[in-house]
Write a structure and sequence with these properties.
about 675 residues, 3 domains
Amino acid sequence: MKNNFQEKITFIWDLADLLRGTYKRNEYQKVILPFVVLKRFDSVLSDSKSQVLEAYNKYKDQFENLKHVLQTAAKDKKGRPLGFYNYSRYDFKTLLEDPEHIEQNLMHYLDRFSKNVQDIFENFYLKNHIARLAKANLLFLLVKKFSESKVDLHPEVVSNHEMGTIFEELIRRFAEQSNEEAGEHFTPRDVVGLMTKLIFIENGVHLSEKNLIKTIYDPACGTGGMLTSCKEFIRRMNDSIETVLFGQELNEEIYAICKADMLIKGEESNNIKGPKSTLSDDQFKNEKFDFIISNPPYGTKWEADQNEVKKEAERGFEGRFGAGLPRINDGQLLFLQHMLSKMKTKEKSRIAVITNGSPLFTGDAGQGESNIRKWMIESDYVEAIIALPGQLFYNTGIRTYVWVLTNDKPTERIGKIQLIDATSKFKKMRRSLGYKRQYLTEDDLKEILEYYKKFSNSKNVKIFDNEDFGYTKVTVERPLQLNFCVNEERLENLYAYKGFSKLAESKKENPDEKLKEEEEGRKKQDEIIRALKTIGSSLYKNWDEFEDKITEALKGIKLTPAFIKNIILALSEPDETAEYVTDNKGKKKPDSALRDSEKIPLKQDIEEYFEKEVKPYYSDAWMDRKKDKIGYEINFTQYFYKYVPPRPLEEIEADIKKVTAEIQELIKEDVE
């Protein structure tokens, strides 16, 4: 069965060669994928084709709406309703019997599908491609190729699970070929397996009761692999549980594939929404879910969503983004907030979500990202974060993290966050799939889950209090100390002050008036400089003393106090030996150039820290506590840092000599 399954993928992939010349390489999937879906529907419907046609012909003149009649007639081999139908007399076999009219017959065939299937092909824009293929004399040939036994997609030959894998593998190959990010649409099954187990692991989530109803949601569902993985897992645990799947997807083609896959598997396809952005157009506004699992896009701008997202944020916690907004170039923390907003309020909900490292530490105290982390951690939603190895995904080699979130932690985990370093748990693949060069074995998964369940500190596990990730960002000021002097070098600094340089500028449109105003301005500049030179070139170290000199020198020129202050600053330089600059109450003024900040852990006394870590080095420094900001960050590298000693110098020198000798030999060979 496995070889047969791989043979089908290879055969379908090779069909893209037919399109060369008519379609560009990056367009092949726009034809092949919908034809694969169409062929699958055709195969699934074949078992009750005659019964559906019989029902249609019998009742078409009796009822205006035949939907219920036709859905009742459309069944699989075991007599189970399919949830969709097609009442055209055509199928892939009969379409080939009339080559001259294959375009209009195929259009007729599409129009006779139930509405839920038509929605799928509309998002593939299949009719446009049919017309284009017909014009290029390729339509008959493609339908004929899809009718061969090598593309037999009947459920008896290709299971629903295998069909989903075929979809994923074709998408990955096409995306890789056209330099698109395949990982935006689906997640490797080894990673999905880990996330699924983390969601349902026995941790207060009891699924042993009979006849429960559980809802599972993915806000960036791709081809739906995570949702179906969760359903299969629950079925193995307790097949009496009714599992209802919900998902939303932005990409049109991927949405169409997901909906088709769900429809064929007998799921409620109307629960798959799209093609719409979850961030700006949530299709499940009033829904809450038991389990949420997702691999949302990372490092992706949310610029297209920003108007709606900002409106939602203005609603505070009545909306989905009450904790804050991250910077525009990465929407991962928006997805995290969105998922948390979808947890049930009176029942336990659990979330497993993948991110890159950015949501862990990007953003300073007081900024959107830090505020979101602050809210999540202080609300005690973060149960565990697992650092995965690199090169696990098709579209990126970077390391990623699985967050486990819940609204109801077990007693021993309350106020705690478990960090797991699983970066060394992988096996190398024999053949790379895009960027994916490593995978998680069953043993790796068991070991990671064992780390999680033990909930105790070890080499790969660290347990922290929530507060351990928080800090107060304190502003540290140092006094302003300046000396002052009127000399040629410092007088040049006056032109860097906008107020002074603008004296010689004019906004007049009339050339004569403009020239006159600029000339008057230059005269005033010269007048100021001449007046300043009367002070002499002595060095002053007291602001008030120098200010008196400046005021006296410029008393005949009409200038504002702010203008005079900026002249003084232009003629100044930092000087640690100068007197402190003070305000009119005698309070030291801070030097903005020396302003610094300290991140002081929440568990540490701020005054004690300041006396111990700052005062010994800067005795005249002080803290401006009005500017205090609370921040949160999770720095995995810091917590699991392993010191690797440098190689011995002798070893490095030996390597250099060896490489140098090899290069010299190569040069000698080229010369000879």
